[in-house]
């Protein structure tokens, strides 16, 4: 049998079979006419259920069939606990074939073409059907068993044990032509263009591969391509390569050149003589350039490589033309053996499955005397790369006890959605399909594995069916008291129907979901609901209220707060809970803070800032400052100014003055900005009054007035006298600068303040100078600061000669000042003279000699410069005088007319 539909691979996901969930084994029904397995065979491998043969199969993990049943019993309990895995295949017994197929006559050969199916029987009948088994026609072609069927799509050919080959047109079976070869025909192949060439190749027990063609007179002309190497067990073609199987093994020949491309001997067994003629070979073409051969328990994989030698004929006529040539043609093809492996079973059929996998039909042969003895047939999925078995089913066929290996057939047909396979024996026909997603869904539902059914149902069933299974899984979780999983899964169901356009489905789902959540809440498992119950779409308010009431009653305030943060106000009765929170706050217990946090959140969400601020002040919530600043609400809370100012501060008032001023400025920046911004609605005097006592608050008052004086100097003008003491206490180094910039303070009061404090010389000097008491200021510089440089600069800044004389006279008993006066620049020589005249004769001044030398040198230089300047001026004056005298001696032209 040749499979012409093997280029496509299955597209459904692969799942491995497993045993039934109830631990029972499926036995054939008595009224189903399904052959049951013998008692000594493990019933767990029997695959039957009415006319549906369900895939109760096992995935092999290196286990052989020879392992003892005792071991199976020991590991039975453990395997039952493992998660069930759906089978890979499903089986359905076909009843569309004529009943006489399996009663009076039986199938001996099959062909599964993409357009039709052909079945040959042991009585020599050929049945043609459509792929859905609708009969086309039945015709008697041979006197005995048909062993081979082939078609080019228009014509068919059958080979029989009676020695004849019958060829006819599929659309008209009355045109059948029979060819007698006198010996049983095991294989026949038509030319790809039989209509034009009338050529076919056959072979059988005569041991010859014969190419036959009718000449123009209608006579048959035979050409022997190979002979003398045992019966021909199979003949196949791919493109322009023909291959056959006999005792010599597998031989490939080029149709174009008639050259033998490759021969692979049938492997010999060390324990027994190899008998290739005992088994029927099976060939499969997964791709246009690849060939898989299954023969006995051997599998070969070949690759055919094309060579670009130009165009030439690819039909069997090419063999005849090359045979007539006196020269041997050069091989135009190359056939390579890519893989070879042996499998556990002897094959009765082979077909591509998916990706790098093949399906094999057969069973194990371990009886040397009766190699084809009856056994339960098996379907195996083999990895073609590794040769390992990855799946196995034993399929009980009717009357399997009386059937041998060559009584089974495996065919493949590409259906509308996925490949389908046909397991055919002399007594039975079973439809084999890959377990679809819908099959997986049903399989899981039957075993109450609703979670898996839910997952698969996304791609396999309608939304309604999937939702039904989803709620069955939820009921299962609730029964098992898996509250958390039940709540989470219910939320997942709701999210799926949220965007559904079917309002009825959505409403029914929401109602069922509400019942689930209510059930969980009533069982006291609220902790598993609050974090999963959805708010979009919204369920009944009483569900959300019930959760919040439970948490409030049980004092689970963390969960309560999390809920009101997460849920929009529309889903629960927030006003009712605001009232309850207010009542609890009034108790002033240890949970007061948590209650306030909750009610603050509710008020802020509603933008009820005026209600939220009092609670935020109590909680020292820094957000209150931003709200007051943004929404201009500070005037409503004038009585709480102090509390508002202290919101960012978490320590005691006693420690407030101990903090660095820069840190305090950062801490109180926002509340001070708030007061400054609202200076027109909050009287500055009232704020000052609040911050004057206790004294620890004065530092905040200082920061406030300092900021306010920059933004609005007029607002602090009446407070400048008080600010002097604040600067003196908290920012001493900036007091002088303040005194210089401000004009609204009382200078006399400022002088009195600075005079009473130690070290305020610079401020006093400025203040004395400001009121014209320059001599007092100078005396303070000389006596208090002992700073001659500052004294000299002070005098120069006023430009008062009397003050200068006072400084010279007042400092003559102070060598440091005398030295400084002599070292200071003297542009006119008066300073040096006055100082030297006034100096006490007995005063000791360090470095006086050097100073006098410098003075003399400076005077000499000044004198020299003066003389040079005088000389330049004198010379220029003389030049101008001479020019003037010359000008006087010159006459002047007068125009009389101009004068008139």
How would you describe this structure to a colleague?
- The protein is α+β, with helices and mostly antiparallel strands.
- It has 5 domains: 343 residues, Methylamine Dehydrogenase, Chain H; 95 residues; 101 residues, no CATH class; 101 residues, no CATH class; 51 residues.
- Helix content is 39%, strand content 20%.
- It is built from 32 helices and 29 strands.
- The strands form 7 sheets. It has a 5-stranded antiparallel sheet, with no helix packed on it.
- The chain is elongated and about 160 Å long.
- The chain starts with 51 loop residues before the first strand and ends with a helix.
- The N terminus is likely disordered.
Structure, briefly:
This protein has 900 residues and is α+β, with helices and mostly antiparallel strands. The chain has 32 helices and 29 strands.
Strand order of the largest sheet: 1-2-29-28-27
Strand content: 15-25%
Gyration radius, to the nearest Å? 57 Å
Number of strands: 29
Q: What would CATH call the class of the largest domain?
A: Mainly Beta
So how many helices? 32
What does the largest sheet look like? 5 strands, antiparallel
Unreliable segments of 5+ consecutive residues: 1-81, 323-328
CA-based shape: elongated
Proper CATH architecture of the largest domain: 7 Propeller
| Residue share in helix | 25-40%
How would you classify the helix and strand content by structural class?
alpha+beta
- CATH superfamily assignment of the largest domain? YVTN repeat-like/Quinoprotein amine dehydrogenase
CATH topology of the largest domain: Methylamine Dehydrogenase, Chain H
Overall average residue pLDDT: 80
- State the end-to-end CA separation: 150 Å
Total count of domains: 5
């Amino acid at each position: 049998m040749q499979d012409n539909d093997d280029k496509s691979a299955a597209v459904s996901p692969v799942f491995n079979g497993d045993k039934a969930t109830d631990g029972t084994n499926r036995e054939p029904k008595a009224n189903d006419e399904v052959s049951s397995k013998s008692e000594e065979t493990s019933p767990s491998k029997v695959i039957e259920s009415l006319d549906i043969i369900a895939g109760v199969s096992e995935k092999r993990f290196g286990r052989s069939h020879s392992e003892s049943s005792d071991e199976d019993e020991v590991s039975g309990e453990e395997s039952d606990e493992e998660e069930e895995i759906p089978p890979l295949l499903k089986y359905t017994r076909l009843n569309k074939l004529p009943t006489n197929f399996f009663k009076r006559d039986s199938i001996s050969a099959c062909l599964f073409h993409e357009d039709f199916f052909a079945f040959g029987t042991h009585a020599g009948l050929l049945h043609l059907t459509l792929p859905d088994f609708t009969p086309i026609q039945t015709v008697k072609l041979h006197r005995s068993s048909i062993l081979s069927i082939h078609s080019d799509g228009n014509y068919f050919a059958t080979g029989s044990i009676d020695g004849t080959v019958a060829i006819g047109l599929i659309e008209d079976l009355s045109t059948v032509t029979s060819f007698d070869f006198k010996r049983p025909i095991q294989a026949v192949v038509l030319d790809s263009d039989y209509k034009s060439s009338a050529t076919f190749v056959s072979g059988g027990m005569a041991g010859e591969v014969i190419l036959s063609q009718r000449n123009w007179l209608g006579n048959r002309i035979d050409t022997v391509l190979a002979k003398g190497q045992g019966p021909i067990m199979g003949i196949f073609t791919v493109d322009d390569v023909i291959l056959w199987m006999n005792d010599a093994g597998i031989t490939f020949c080029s149709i174009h050149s008639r050259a033998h491309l490759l021969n692979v001997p049938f492997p010999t067994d060390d324990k027994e003589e190899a008998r290739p003629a005992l088994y029927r070979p099976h060939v499969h073409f997964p791709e246009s350039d690849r060939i898989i051969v299954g023969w006995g328990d051997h599998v070969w994989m070949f690759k055919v490589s094309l060579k670009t030698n130009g165009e030439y004929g690819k039909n069997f006529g090419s063999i005849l033309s090359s045979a007539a040539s006196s020269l041997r043609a050069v091989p135009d093809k190359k056939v390579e053996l890519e893989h070879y492996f042996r499998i556990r079973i002897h094959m009765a059929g082979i077909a591509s499955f998916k990706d790098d996998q093949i399906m094999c039909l057969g069973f194990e042969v371990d009886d040397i005397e009766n190699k084809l003895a009856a056994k339960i047939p098996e379907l195996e999925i083999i990895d073609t790369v590794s040769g390992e078995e990855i799946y196995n089913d034993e399929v009980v066929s009717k009357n399997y006890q009386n059937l041998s290996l060559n009584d089974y057939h495996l065919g493949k047909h590409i259906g509308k959605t996925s490949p389908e396979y046909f397991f055919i024996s002399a007594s039975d026909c079973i439809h084999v399909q890959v377990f679809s997603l819908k099959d997986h869904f049903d399989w899981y539902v039957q075993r109450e594995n609703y979670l898996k059914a839910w997952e698969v149902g996304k791609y396999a069933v309608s939304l309604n069916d999937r939702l039904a299974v989803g709620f069955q899984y939820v009921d299962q979780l609730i029964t098992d008291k898996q509250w958390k999983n039940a709540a989470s899964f219910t939320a997942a169901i709701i999210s799926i129907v949220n965007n559904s356009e079917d309002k009825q489905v959505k409403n029914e789902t929401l109602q069922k979901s509400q019942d689930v959540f209510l059930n969980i809440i009533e069982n006291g498992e609220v902790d598993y609901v609050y974090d999963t119950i959805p708010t979009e779409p919204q369920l009944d308010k009483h569900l959300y209220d019930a959760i919040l009431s439970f948490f409030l009653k049980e004092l689970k305030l963390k969960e309560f707060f999390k809920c009101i943060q997460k849920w929009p106000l529309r889903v629960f009765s927030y006003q009712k809970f605001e009232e309850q929170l207010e009542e609890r706050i009034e108790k002033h217990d240890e949970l007061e803070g948590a209650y306030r946090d909750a009610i603050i959140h509710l008020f802020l969400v509603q933008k009820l800032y005026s209600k939220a601020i009092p609670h935020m002040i109590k909680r020292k919530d820094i957000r209150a400052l931003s709200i007051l600043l943004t929404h201009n609400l500070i005037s409503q809370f004038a009585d709480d100014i102090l509390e508002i100012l202290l919101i960012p501060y978490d320590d005691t008032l006693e420690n407030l003055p101990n903090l660095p001023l820069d840190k305090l400025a950062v801490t109180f920046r926002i509340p001070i900005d708030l007061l400054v911004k609202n200076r027109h609605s909050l009287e500055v005097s009232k704020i000052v009054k609040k911050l004057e006592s206790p004294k620890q608050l004065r530092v905040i008052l200082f920061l406030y007035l300092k900021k306010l004086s920059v933004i609005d100097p007029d607002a602090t003008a009446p407070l400048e006298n008080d600010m002097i003491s604040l600067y003196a206490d908290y920012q001493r180094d900036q007091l002088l600068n303040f005194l210089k910039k401000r004009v609204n303070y009382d200078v006399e009061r400022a002088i009195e303040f600075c005079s009473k404090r130690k070290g305020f010389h610079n401020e006093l000097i400025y203040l004395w100078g400001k009121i014209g008491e320059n001599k007092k200021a100078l005396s303070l510089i000389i006596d208090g600061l002992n700073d001659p440089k500052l004294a000299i600069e002070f005098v120069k800044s006023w430009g008062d000669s009397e003050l200068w004389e006072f400084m010279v006279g007042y400092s003559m008993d102070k060598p440091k000042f005398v030295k400084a006066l002599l070292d200071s620049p003297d542009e006119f020589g008066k300073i040096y003279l006055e100082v030297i005249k006034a100096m006490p004769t007995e005063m000791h001044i360090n470095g006086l000699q050097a100073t006098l030398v410098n003075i003399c040198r400076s005077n000499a230089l000044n004198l020299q410069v003066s003389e040079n300047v005088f000389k330049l001026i004198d010379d220029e004056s003389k030049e101008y005088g001479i020019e003037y005298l010359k000008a006087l001696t010159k006459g002047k032209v007068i125009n009389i007319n101009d004068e008139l």
